[in-house]
Amino acid sequence: MTDQADRRPDAPMPDFEALSRNMARFVEEAGRVAVAYLKPFEEGRAKGGAADEVGEIVKTLGHVAEKWMSDPQKAIEAQSSLTSRFIELWAATLKRMQGEQAEPVIKPDPKDRRFADPEWDENPLFDFIKQAYLLTVDWADRLASQAEGLDEHTRHKAQFYVRQIASALAPSNFIATNPELIRTTLRENGANLVRGMQMLAEDIEAGGGQLKVRQSDPTKFEVGVNLANTPGKVIFRNDLIELLQYSPTTEKVLRRPLLIVPPWINKYYILDLTPDKSFIRWAVDQGLTVFCISWVNPDERLAGKSFEDYMREGIFAALDAITRNTGEEEVSAVGYCVGGTLLAATLAYMAANGDERIASATFLTTQVDFTHAGDLKVFVDEEQIRAIEEEMAKRGYLEGSRMAAAFNMLRPNDLIWPYVVNNYVRGISPMPFDLLYWNSDSTRMPAANHSFYMRECYLKNNLARGRMTFGNTRLELPDVTIPTYHLATREDHIAPARSVFLGSQLFGGRIRFVLAGSGHIAGVINPPAKSKYQHWVNGKPRGELEDWLKEAQEVPGSWWPDWIDWIAAQNPERVKARDPAAGPLEPLCDAPGTYVKMRA
């Protein structure tokens, strides 16, 4: 946070000699940035994809322009609407420059932190820049949303791309148009720009020629040391998974073990961050025998591994190992995000084949019906999928950085541009933050698996429609009659609450739906001791989420206690705790294992 001295517009003049030296160093560091960017091209190992993405943006916005230009009268009206508002802004600015009061023509969203510095309001020049930006963005968004004759997918893409461009071109991102950045640069004689350029070069080098924006201090965390350090053993390993069994902390445990199926788009330890945030450690403390799949970070050798392989060599292999090590034939299962989508497909396959090893299932921010899948659908159409498949065919997998960038683009004003400005303009290294360290620890995806997921789920929605097949088995979610628990989060940008709510209704057994506060990660990782976000409970999900929520009861604090009560009610019998070091399967190594430490 800036102090009062930093906020004063009458900041002292810079030391021009120091400023000159720093500008020379800035130019030197800029050369290092250019070398880092060009080196992969010179060595023939540049990563593709960026040109295709730019082409898609240009093509989509070109469609919007064509629709408006096809009706000259409407195009003139649209242009006039912007012009009239700018005239209104000019008039208000002239009043302010003459010392008169004038109401803003447009105000930023109260939650928009980009314009929090007082000088954005107090200085007529910067107030004009701010409002001119907001007016232009509002106008461009209306052009995209109101263009006649666009199909809904193209309209959705156009609105999404307008938001991305607007976020990138915000005046808060540039020194010349941000009063706080001007004061910082003058006060530090440009030293902030030198530090920023040094970090920019480092981050491009770390990204192999592409910018990998650092969101946390990576030197402060180590998996297995201060992250993912719940005690346990790896009791099974194959090409796709390591299976972790955690050491008990209670004398008695529920008879039925718990199997966690995390997403392979990210690493499992989001469920086992620091001890006070660890869902896994908390579940162990509640008297559960917890097993967790740790997916491999695949390379070209696993290019052919399919969605069905992830069921057979992932979930089925884990179930076999659990039975061998505990003697239990039934487990409770938890699936998170795409891990939950795989779990749902697996349950439908098991129902069709009379396999009853999973006796209850929990789905955390999981989509099985992709009708309302949100902004990620922007990236999914036949042409874009084909381009991604061509890229994956070259190396056998999708780079983890591609998915990480897509997720960050869902919230650019929170996850991209604040870090760009702080890192590379203010020259401030980010603070250590465990969740953002995990967020940057991306994983690759096998070509066959990822292609199936995009086509069958996002493009065709075949799991919800009963048209997905594994082998000769058609997967029907209504055939899944075991008890299921579905958690959605209210501000989820990846698995929107409306989408999760709709999908939960497809299952054929007893359904409990819970809506948690916050988003895809923070809403899930909400330990009871912190009690940061509330949750809502009601009866069986029916109809639309808005109607369900009107009659729902708001409960303060974490959803975790509600879930453990539900789990215990399914099978309350308790037995002696199971030590993973003393089971029939000889431990291969300590948790968190080796797969989770493989970097993309």
Notes on the protein architecture:
The protein contains 22 helices and 17 strands. By secondary structure, the protein is α/β, with parallel strands linked by helices. The protein has 2 domains: 4-206, no CATH class; 232-376 and 475-597, Alpha/Beta hydrolase fold, catalytic domain (Rossmann fold), CATH 3.40.50. It has an 11-stranded mixed sheet, with helices on both faces. Strands 3-16 form a two-stranded antiparallel ribbon. A hairpin with a 2-residue loop joins strand 10 and strand 11. Helix 3 (50-69) packs across helix 7, helix 11 (307-326) packs across helix 12 and helix 11 (307-326) packs across helix 18 (447-459). The longest helix has 27 residues, at 16-42. The radius of gyration is 27 Å and the shape is globular. The two termini are 34 Å apart.
What are the main properties of this structure?
600 residues, alpha/beta, Rossmann fold, 2 domains, two-stranded antiparallel ribbon, 22 helices, 17 strands, 12% strand, globular
CATH superfamily of the largest domain: Alpha/Beta hydrolase fold, catalytic domain
Indicate the CATH class of the largest domain: Alpha Beta
Secondary-structure arrangement, i.e. CATH architecture of the largest domain: 3-Layer(aba) Sandwich
Number of domains: 2
Mean pLDDT over the residues:
93
Biggest sheet architecture: 11 strands, mixed
Question: What is the number of strand segments?
Answer: 17
Helix content: 40-55%
N-end to C-end Cα span: 34 Å
Low-confidence stretches: 1-7
- The structural class is alpha/beta
Number of helices: 22
**Percentage of residues in strands:** 5-15%
Examine the coordinates and then state which fold CATH places here, giving the name of the CATH topology of the largest domain.
Answer: Rossmann fold
Radius of gyration: 27 Å
Strand order of the largest sheet: 15-14-13-12-7-6-4-5-2-1-17
Global outline: globular
Protein name: Polyhydroxyalkanoate synthase
Domain Poly-beta-hydroxybutyrate polymerase N-terminal: 111-283
GO molecular function, one term: acyltransferase activity
Domain AB hydrolase-1: 287-523
